[in-house]
Amino acid sequence: MKTQLDFAKAGIVTREMERAARNEAVDADTLRDLIASGHAVLPKNRHHSFETVRAIGRGLKTKVNANLGTSGECADMDLERRKLQAALRARADSVMDLSTGGDLQALRTMYLQEAGTMVGTVPVYGIATEMVRKGVALEKMDGDVLLRGIEEQCRQGVDYITVHCGVTLASVRKLEHFERIMPCVSRGGSIHMYWMRKNKKENPLYENFNDLLEIAHEHDVTLSLGDGFRPGTIADAIDGAQIEELMILAELARRAHERGVQVMIEGPGHVPLEHIQSHVQLQKKLCNGAPFYVLGPLPTDIAAGYDHITAAIGGALAGAAGADFLCYVTPAEHLKLPDEDDVYQGVLAARIAAHVADLAKGIPGAKERDEAMSRCRQALDWDGVVAAALDPDLVQRRIQVTQDKEACSMCGKLCAVKIVRKATA
């Protein structure tokens, strides 16, 4: 069976491409060309039906993902449903199920059935969780176990998967030669590194990458090549291990594209502000313009409790430099499993960053939204202000206007708009 990439290379516009193009300022033929070149992806498993089909990539709106899921310490299906609804209410373009507690199969099923958006997973999380539950040591997780677990999730309908194929013997050796404060903060990366050191063998996902491509192609699953050695502090950013892994991911992205499998590249967590733009440009150069999916990035380490703001700062700059997909960060980052309010705030912060990036990139329609808000403010059109806002519900709750509705409670009789009107009357 053909994938979206196969169809695009053959010059065929699919129904999914038509649907995704309706959300963009490009037509379906342009989107097809972007997908064919590897500069955009359309994550849509052939087994998963959902309404909000989105494409990610160059010249398209910057998209936002919300990470959801349980932990071993907190596995509540009702809470996960509330978190999902919070993400959708805040208009996330995608959700990822990162569950490591509770009934993992039932949780994935719930997300796939109720999200109405593309759904991603990190398969090694579920595989490792089940092994730990059964008392099986992680070093027993060989290539067959990994590929069977990945195939199960792909068959279930997951649209894209994070796979840490770039954590290899070569990149681990690089890591050993750099003195990081936090050597590895990626759960998936740490699991693979642990397995490799215990078994003194190559990463099975790198060694058996062709088998992984066959599974992804069969189900039309987009590969999100994970950055297992992403920096977890700004002091560790842009070192040999990170760049070695990025070069490996560039090689694997080329192989995936040749096989007809859509692919995007995941980016770093903590990066100093002055290095964000250059890092995005480096990824785009090495990976032939493949879509870049970034976590944050976070340009400072000390904002615990406010890391959704930190990530929005980094995400806006990364998006303006060319990043295509922002993974939200919530106020709970580094502290606890997020609740539904954390999820909502995280998505809105990331959406602000995405819109700022779209303004900088000149995405058609972005500037017009800001102009609409400004005209409503000039007209003292409070209903229009509410409607134009990114979060209308919040604005409706917070807005306070004078009794005659001629000004907000901030300025009252000294409203600049009213004074200028009188001066020019």
TrEMBL record:
Keywords: 4Fe-4S, Iron, Iron-sulfur, Lyase, Metal-binding, S-adenosyl-L-methionine, Zinc. It catalyses: 5-amino-1-(5-phospho-beta-D-ribosyl)imidazole + AH2 + S-adenosyl-L-methionine = 5-hydroxybenzimidazole + 5'-deoxyadenosine + formate + L-methionine + A + NH4(+) + phosphate + 2 H(+). The keyword Lyase applies. Its cofactor is [4Fe-4S] cluster. GO terms for biological process: thiamine biosynthetic process. Its EC number is 4.1.99.17. InterPro entries: ThiC/Bza_core_dom (IPR038521), ThiC/BzaA/B (IPR002817). One of its GO terms (molecular function) is 4 iron, 4 sulfur cluster binding. Belongs to the ThiC family. 5-hydroxybenzimidazole synthase subfamily. Homodimer. This is Phosphomethylpyrimidine synthase. It comes from Desulfacinum hydrothermale DSM 13146.
